[in-house]
Design a protein that fits this description.
5 strands; 7 helices; alpha/beta; binds zinc ion; globular; about 40% helix
Protein backbone atom coordinates (compact mmCIF):
# COMPACT_ATOMS: atom_id res chain seq x y z
CA UNK A 1 0.00 0.00 0.00
CA UNK A 2 1.30 3.48 -0.80
CA UNK A 3 1.33 6.19 1.83
CA UNK A 4 3.07 6.61 5.13
CA UNK A 5 0.20 5.94 7.51
CA UNK A 6 -0.11 2.42 8.85
CA UNK A 7 -3.43 0.66 8.70
CA UNK A 8 -5.09 0.56 12.09
CA UNK A 9 -7.50 -2.05 13.41
CA UNK A 10 -11.24 -1.89 12.89
CA UNK A 11 -11.56 -1.28 16.62
CA UNK A 12 -9.28 1.75 16.40
CA UNK A 13 -11.25 3.36 13.58
CA UNK A 14 -14.56 2.60 15.31
CA UNK A 15 -13.29 4.17 18.52
CA UNK A 16 -12.59 7.33 16.52
CA UNK A 17 -16.13 7.20 15.08
CA UNK A 18 -17.50 6.82 18.60
CA UNK A 19 -15.90 10.13 19.57
CA UNK A 20 -17.69 11.78 16.64
CA UNK A 21 -21.01 10.24 17.71
CA UNK A 22 -20.52 11.53 21.22
CA UNK A 23 -19.80 15.00 19.84
CA UNK A 24 -22.95 14.82 17.71
CA UNK A 25 -25.00 14.02 20.79
CA UNK A 26 -23.55 17.02 22.57
CA UNK A 27 -24.86 19.16 19.70
CA UNK A 28 -28.39 17.79 20.03
CA UNK A 29 -28.20 15.17 17.30
CA UNK A 30 -28.70 11.47 17.74
CA UNK A 31 -25.31 9.76 18.20
CA UNK A 32 -24.83 8.43 14.68
CA UNK A 33 -21.38 9.03 13.16
CA UNK A 34 -19.24 7.74 10.32
CA UNK A 35 -15.75 8.10 8.96
CA UNK A 36 -13.98 7.20 5.75
CA UNK A 37 -10.60 5.47 5.61
CA UNK A 38 -8.50 5.76 2.45
CA UNK A 39 -6.77 2.81 0.82
CA UNK A 40 -3.59 3.97 2.60
CA UNK A 41 -5.28 3.77 6.00
CA UNK A 42 -5.82 7.48 6.64
CA UNK A 43 -9.05 8.88 8.05
CA UNK A 44 -9.89 11.29 5.24
CA UNK A 45 -13.46 12.36 6.09
CA UNK A 46 -15.70 12.34 9.13
CA UNK A 47 -19.41 13.01 9.57
CA UNK A 48 -22.30 12.72 11.99
CA UNK A 49 -26.06 12.99 11.63
CA UNK A 50 -27.30 16.54 10.99
CA UNK A 51 -31.02 15.80 11.07
CA UNK A 52 -31.81 18.23 13.87
CA UNK A 53 -29.47 20.99 12.67
CA UNK A 54 -30.77 20.95 9.09
CA UNK A 55 -34.33 19.87 9.93
CA UNK A 56 -34.05 17.13 7.33
CA UNK A 57 -34.72 13.48 8.14
CA UNK A 58 -32.38 12.34 5.36
CA UNK A 59 -29.23 13.98 6.72
CA UNK A 60 -27.68 10.73 7.91
CA UNK A 61 -23.96 10.53 8.67
CA UNK A 62 -23.11 7.82 6.14
CA UNK A 63 -24.98 9.32 3.18
CA UNK A 64 -23.50 12.75 3.87
CA UNK A 65 -20.02 11.22 4.13
CA UNK A 66 -20.24 9.21 0.92
CA UNK A 67 -21.61 12.11 -1.09
CA UNK A 68 -18.76 14.35 0.08
CA UNK A 69 -16.29 11.56 -0.69
CA UNK A 70 -17.66 11.12 -4.21
CA UNK A 71 -17.20 14.83 -4.84
CA UNK A 72 -13.61 14.77 -3.53
CA UNK A 73 -12.29 11.34 -4.48
CA UNK A 74 -14.93 9.75 -6.66
CA UNK A 75 -17.06 8.80 -8.26
CA UNK A 76 -15.48 5.38 -7.67
CA UNK A 77 -14.61 4.78 -4.01
CA UNK A 78 -13.12 1.32 -4.55
CA UNK A 79 -10.49 0.73 -1.89
CA UNK A 80 -12.10 3.02 0.68
CA UNK A 81 -13.60 1.76 3.93
CA UNK A 82 -16.64 3.23 5.67
CA UNK A 83 -16.93 2.95 9.45
CA UNK A 84 -20.29 3.72 10.99
CA UNK A 85 -21.39 3.56 14.62
CA UNK A 86 -24.71 1.97 13.65
CA UNK A 87 -25.65 -0.45 10.90
CA UNK A 88 -26.66 1.75 7.94
CA UNK A 89 -30.25 2.18 6.85
CA UNK A 90 -31.38 1.28 3.34
CA UNK A 91 -30.61 4.79 2.04
CA UNK A 92 -27.11 4.86 3.49
CA UNK A 93 -26.22 1.30 2.54
CA UNK A 94 -27.36 1.90 -1.03
CA UNK A 95 -25.39 5.14 -1.21
CA UNK A 96 -22.21 3.33 -0.12
CA UNK A 97 -22.89 0.41 -2.45
CA UNK A 98 -23.47 2.65 -5.45
CA UNK A 99 -20.22 4.49 -4.74
CA UNK A 100 -18.39 1.12 -4.70
CA UNK A 101 -17.11 1.39 -1.17
CA UNK A 102 -14.95 -1.72 -0.63
CA UNK A 103 -15.42 -2.29 3.08
CA UNK A 104 -18.17 -1.43 5.54
CA UNK A 105 -17.61 -1.72 9.29
CA UNK A 106 -20.56 -1.24 11.62
CA UNK A 107 -21.02 -0.75 15.36
CA UNK A 108 -24.37 -1.42 16.94
CA UNK A 109 -27.27 -2.89 14.97
CA UNK A 110 -30.31 -1.04 13.69
CA UNK A 111 -32.50 -3.53 15.57
CA UNK A 112 -30.77 -2.78 18.88
CA UNK A 113 -31.27 0.98 18.46
CA UNK A 114 -34.90 0.41 17.47
CA UNK A 115 -35.49 -1.65 20.59
CA UNK A 116 -33.70 0.81 22.88
CA UNK A 117 -35.74 3.68 21.48
CA UNK A 118 -39.01 1.89 22.16
CA UNK A 119 -39.65 1.81 18.43
CA UNK A 120 -39.18 5.54 17.89
CA UNK A 121 -36.17 5.13 15.61
CA UNK A 122 -37.74 5.11 12.16
CA UNK A 123 -35.93 3.16 9.43
CA UNK A 124 -36.70 0.54 6.83
CA UNK A 125 -36.34 -2.79 8.64
CA UNK A 126 -33.89 -4.42 6.24
CA UNK A 127 -30.46 -5.42 7.47
CA UNK A 128 -27.18 -4.40 5.87
CA UNK A 129 -26.33 -8.08 5.55
CA UNK A 130 -29.51 -8.76 3.59
CA UNK A 131 -28.93 -5.80 1.27
CA UNK A 132 -25.33 -6.86 0.80
CA UNK A 133 -26.37 -10.33 -0.30
CA UNK A 134 -29.04 -8.94 -2.63
CA UNK A 135 -26.64 -6.56 -4.36
CA UNK A 136 -24.61 -9.14 -6.19
CA UNK A 137 -21.38 -7.20 -5.67
CA UNK A 138 -20.89 -7.64 -1.96
CA UNK A 139 -19.05 -5.12 0.17
CA UNK A 140 -16.66 -6.63 2.72
CA UNK A 141 -18.94 -6.32 5.75
CA UNK A 142 -17.67 -6.40 9.34
CA UNK A 143 -20.46 -6.01 11.90
CA UNK A 144 -20.81 -5.32 15.63
CA UNK A 145 -17.41 -3.68 16.22
CA UNK A 146 -17.60 -1.97 19.64
CA UNK A 147 -21.34 -2.61 19.40
CA UNK A 148 -22.05 -2.19 23.12
CA UNK A 149 -20.18 1.11 23.26
CA UNK A 150 -21.99 2.41 20.18
CA UNK A 151 -25.39 1.42 21.57
CA UNK A 152 -24.65 2.88 25.01
CA UNK A 153 -24.57 6.40 23.54
CA UNK A 154 -28.27 6.05 22.75
CA UNK A 155 -29.31 5.18 26.30
CA UNK A 156 -30.17 8.74 27.29
CA UNK A 157 -30.65 10.11 23.76
CA UNK A 158 -33.80 11.99 22.86
CA UNK A 159 -35.66 10.26 20.04
CA UNK A 160 -38.75 12.37 20.42
CA UNK A 161 -40.28 15.00 18.23
CA UNK A 162 -40.65 18.15 20.27
CA UNK A 163 -40.33 21.89 19.96
CA UNK A 164 -39.92 21.67 16.22
CA UNK A 165 -36.98 19.30 16.49
CA UNK A 166 -36.72 16.26 14.36
CA UNK A 167 -35.05 12.97 15.11
CA UNK A 168 -33.62 10.43 12.77
ZN1 LIG B 1 -29.08 6.16 7.02
Amino acid sequence: MPGSSPMHSDTYYMSEALKLADAAKAKGELPFAALLVSPAGDIVLTEHDRVAELRDYTQHAETRLVKTACAKFGPDLTGYALYTTCEPCAMCFTTAWLARISKLVTGTSMAAVYELSGGQQREMPISAGTMNRMGGHAIELVELVLADECLALFEDADFGLHDGQVSG
